Amino acid sequence: MEIFVQQLINGLTLGSIYGLIAIGYTMVFGIIGMVNFAHGDVFMVSAFIALICFLLLTTVIGITSIFLALAIVLVVAMFFTSLVNWAIERVAYRPLRGSFRLAPMISAIGMSIFLANFVQVTQGPRNKPVPPMITDVIVLMDSGSYQVTLAWKQVIIMVATAVLLAGFWYLVQKTSLGRAQRACEQDRKMAALLGINVDHTISLTFVIGAALAAVAGVMYLMYYGVANFADGFVPGVKAFTAAVLGGIGSLPGAVLGGLLIGLIETFWSAYFSIEYKDVAAFSILAITLIFMPQGLLGRPEVEKV
Amino acid sequence: MSDTLTAAPPAVGAPVRTDAPMLSVRGVKTFYGNIMALKGVDVDVYKGEIVTLIGSNGAGKSTLMMTIFGQPRPREGSIVYEGRDITKVPTHEIAQLKIAQSPEGRRIFPRMTVFENLQMGASVDGFSHFDEDLLKVFTLFPRLKERINQRGGTLSGGEQQMLAIGRALMSRPRLLMLDEPSLGLAPLIVRQIFDAIRELNRTEGLTVFLVEQNAFHALKLAHRGYVLVNGLVTLSGEGRELLERPEVRAAYLEGGAH
Prior knowledge:
Chain A is mostly helical. In chain A, 72% of the residues lie in helices and 5% in strands.
């Protein structure tokens, strides 16, 4: 029981991070029908932006309040990551719009390789650590031999995810920006006929996706304490899996998928073998897609009237 | 057989024109790949007029509507609106000039509610008259009010048509372009929609450019009409006059539409 609760906490933490990244995949797919393979690397870049910013703040400027430092890091990382993703869209995807379907996807793979290599060259191939932060834990259960703990870091990750998702949900559902975004997703040509600047809206989608990936990046750095140039790949693929599992194009689906992948992976590692955790996650994906090809919350493909 | 009647004296209600047209389409050629869909079309719409473009399926009517919005762009020719050449202006900027279109196939946003679809229509106008315009649309189409929180994709064809027109009106257009507003609607609702168009034109001086297969209703409603055949305007003239033309009767009225 104790182990179960502990794994549940760990799984939800990991799943939150996957969910935040998955939204970027699902939104971009929703609006331009493209799998943005570079998104995982954008997440990795955000972790490095966070790392550099954190070290600058704590060592050069000398901010001692860890929470203040983290808050600044979060804002800076969100800003610069959005800028990076905005630039990527302008340079690598927009010129290929209207080209054949695979062209932007190939360009995205190229961008993914470029980002990973750029970071490897400029930051070095080794793990870059930050000093451990916020190490306090809350002991939830204690059976003598096993303590169930909830780290403050985990609380921050889950709360930040929940708050940002709520804010993001509000943005997409209730503001005119979000409405324009959904309109472009459903019928780009019609949105243009109604005076919506489609190119701007697509840029906005990349910016929002990157901002959420940056939150994930900051959380990841805080949780694991290291950043590595190769960290974009596996979390990226997992988050993409989460988006597909939840139903690509569906925002709640991306979050649900992220949480599920996080939980599956964590429970599998705890009860079975840690070596096969990825196999377990991807197998569940394969099985789900056999029986529900549209994903858990995806819409069936028959809606065209 | 390019026979024009533009010299004929205008009937009562049709304004005499010495001013420049509000919308002027000149020699427009539009291609889909290598296929020429419009082969040099000239159409004028003056302020305060209802102008209709009739023609059979595949004549290029909807292509002209979309070409005016730059989707696709004409390969040759020019489109001038209120004295400004809009041939190369981006689509969303054309919409911002207060031209609204209820397009072919209605193109309702299927996963947005009726209310959100109407909000989308108002985005060009900056929501400054939203409540007032909403009320007007609901007076015109009370059915939409009943369906306000329903998703666009779940509406019936007729309701979608009303929503498409309502959405276009929400932008407070100076020129309203309607592509087959009668398509798939019960005769009673068709009459209701045509009455609404006439009413908007009379009371507010709204300029309307109407594409129709339902030639009888359209020509009765319109001040002037154009007949489009295979991407070319073959006839043009005052609405009621076109209605009397034997070629129009034979092709579009008798046997076809009632």
